[in-house]
Design a protein that fits this description.
This protein is of the alpha+beta class and 171 residues long. The chain has a single domain (24-167), classed as Chitinase A, domain 3 (Roll), CATH 3.10.50.40. The chain is built from three helices and seven strands. Strands 1, 2, 3, 4, 5, 6 and 7 form a seven-stranded antiparallel beta sheet that branches. A hairpin with a 2-residue loop joins β1 and β2 (51-57). The chain is globular.
Length: 171
């Protein structure tokens, strides 16, 4: 093969390769997928720090804040398969979570929910029910949630904030 022909092929490959690079972040891709899902299903939501939420029941108690210990009932699915519940509280028993004082951090009192759920909970009042659409970047990322789930799954959490048990600014 002539050198000029080889150089032409190499130049064509070099020109194509940069266009194959991903130019968006995972969070941007997640947000776009969630917005598309919401639009396709006629769902109206509000947004807080890239977590989309739909208030089902407003609640009448205190607003949840970072540092709270909360009791919630929930079920979780993905936007890719919203009818397949992969996680939920057992029976009618609420789950206790400790929200870190800095969202996304760790809680010293016990288990903290995923970052997206931490954000979502701070939009709720005690006694309220909401549905959250959480980007994979704020959830499990590249990890699979269950054997039949996909990587980078955007989540749907249906949550009832049963009670704010304790306000402790230490965790």
């Amino acid at each position: 093969m002539k050198l000029s022909k080889l150089l032409l092929i190499i130049a064509a490959i070099v020109a194509v390769v940069p266009s194959c690079k991903k130019t968006t972040t995972q969070l941007e891709d997640d947000t776009k997928a969630i917005k598309s899902y919401l639009s396709a299903n006629g769902i109206t939501t509000e947004e807080s720090t890239n977590v989309f939420y739909q208030v089902i029941t407003e609640g009448k108690g205190e607003q949840c804040i970072p540092g709270d210990t909360v009791a919630i009932k929930y079920q979780a699915s993905t936007i890719e398969n919203p009818t397949n519940i992969f996680e939920k509280n057992e029976g009618n028993k609420a789950v206790i979570y400790y929200l870190p004082t800095t969202l996304g951090g760790t809680a010293t009192g016990g288990p903290a929910p995923i970052y997206g759920l931490q954000i979502g909970l701070t939009t709720m009042k005690e006694g309220g029910k909401s549905k959250f659409y959480i980007p994979s970047s704020y959830a499990y990322g590249a990890s699979k949630i269950s054997t039949d789930s996909i990587e980078y799954a955007n989540l749907i959490y249906e949550v009832e904030l049963c009670e704010i048990i304790h306000r402790d600014k230490k965790h």
